[in-house]
Write a structure and sequence with these properties.
Layout lengths: L1 H10 L15 H8 L40 H36 L6 H13 L12 H28 L3
Length: 172
């Protein structure tokens, strides 16, 4: 009787837009719980709404009779995260390749020691990354040749990187 009386008190605060219906325990009480106006005090209410049993009862579950709701996985967020990582990796790789080519130009114009380990490393890595641009122009001055050819190669890598990142981001 105490529970029914507390529901009657709660149902008197039920907005009229929820429809006519009894102001006592019953369908109106279920609406109160559904619209978070009143707390659920009925054992097994989620399993036994409207007299229809949906499966296990309270005593059958180890967690006190509460069903564990399965959280849905947001595939759109996961895809956006993967695309964002791929985009960042592509941008970093393209930028590092362009940086190696620019360092080759700086070391050549600055007259860096060709026997130095850093200079050898940059030279060895920049030659294959210049693709076909390393001998595109053949001016008489070798420093000018390195400036023009490797500079164009660096600009090419930055351009290709920006296109690749746009294509990758289109999948987000």
């Amino acid at each position: 009787m105490g529970r029914r009386a507390s529901l009657r008190g709660a149902t008197s605060r039920l907005p009229e837009r929820l429809g006519p219906g009894p102001r006592a325990a019953g369908p109106a009480a279920y609406r109160l719980v559904a619209f978070c106006v009143a707390a659920c005090h009925t054992s097994g209410m989620s399993e036994n709404v409207g007299g229809v049993t949906t499966g296990d009862q309270d005593g059958d579950r180890p967690n006190g009779g509460r069903r564990r709701l399965r959280q849905s996985y947001d595939w759109a967020k996961a895809r956006a995260r993967v695309v964002g990582v791929l985009s960042a990796v592509a941008r970093w790789v393209g930028t590092l390749i362009a940086l190696l080519l620019v360092l080759r130009v700086v070391f050549t114009l600055g007259g860096a020691n060709p026997d130095n380990g850093i200079t050898r490393f940059i030279t060895e890595w920049s030659d294959p990354l210049a693709l076909g641009f390393s001998d595109l122009f053949t001016p008489a001055d070798p420093q000018l040749a390195v400036l023009v050819n490797y500079g164009i190669a660096a600009l090419f890598w930055l351009f290709i990187t920006s296109i690749a990142v746009r294509i990758i981001n289109a999948f987000a």
